[in-house]
Every structure is written in C-alpha cells, then in structure tokens.
Design goal:
The protein is α+β, with helices and mostly antiparallel strands. The chain is built from three helices and seven strands.
C-alpha cells in the first residue's frame, strides 16, 4: 500500500499540482459566495403568500391550528402538523429544497434572490 502511494506521488508533475490548487481555490470561492447569500423563507398557505421570513433569526411561526414552522440555525422545518402521514415533518430541517404539506396546502419555499416563483399551486 505504501509503495503505491509513494509511486503515485513521484509521478505527479508540477502542472498536476497547479491544477489541483486551482480547483481547490475555485471550490472555496464558490462555497463562500453561496454561503454569503441571504436566503429568505416564503410560506404559502393555500394559494396566498402567508409571509416572508429571514433564516438568520431563530423563531417559531404558528401558521394556523394545523401547522407550526420553526426556523433555527439558518434552516427551517415544519415542527407540528396534524396531517395523517406527517411526511412534511419527516423532511426535517432544510434551507434549499421546498417543504410541502399537501393535506394542509402549506408550502415552504427558499429563495436567495428576487427570482420568479418556482412552485405554482393550482
């Protein structure tokens, strides 16, 4: 095992190391730019916008007697739902993919800018 690793290291060229370095720098820059965006939580109840919330502030939002949403640590989740299968609660905390409770017609959508609405309820 040691022999194959040392043999691999000896076959590396300067251009290989430069390419790996460039890829690492690019990955760090992309990660930092994505992390710096302020993502907002859009909550839709039925066909209407219930509210827009920042993920930077931890809070609990009571939608109605059927649903409660919790924002914590820059992520959001449905902490209470009286729907039969509770799939929306099983999705857990998220900050990118939508969380949907079909029986209660509740949609949590995450947007990082003023882009057009991605989900359309009919």
């Amino acid at each position: 095992m040691e022999y194959s690793i040392t043999k691999f290291i000896k076959t590396l060229r300067l251009s290989d190391l430069i390419l790996v370095g460039i890829c690492l720098v690019a990955a760090v820059l992309v990660y930092r730019s994505l992390a710096s965006e302020t993502t907002k939580l859009y909550i839709y109840k039925g066909e209407q916008l219930f509210g827009i919330y920042s993920l930077q502030t931890d809070r609990s939002i009571v939608i109605d007697e059927h649903n409660t949403v919790v924002i914590s640590g820059g992520k959001a989740a449905i902490s209470f739902s009286d729907c039969p299968d509770k799939r929306c609660m099983k999705q857990g905390y998220n900050r990118s993919l939508p969380i949907i409770c079909l029986p209660n017609r509740l949609v949590l959508e995450f947007k990082s800018s003023d882009a057009d609405r991605k989900l359309i309820l009919q």
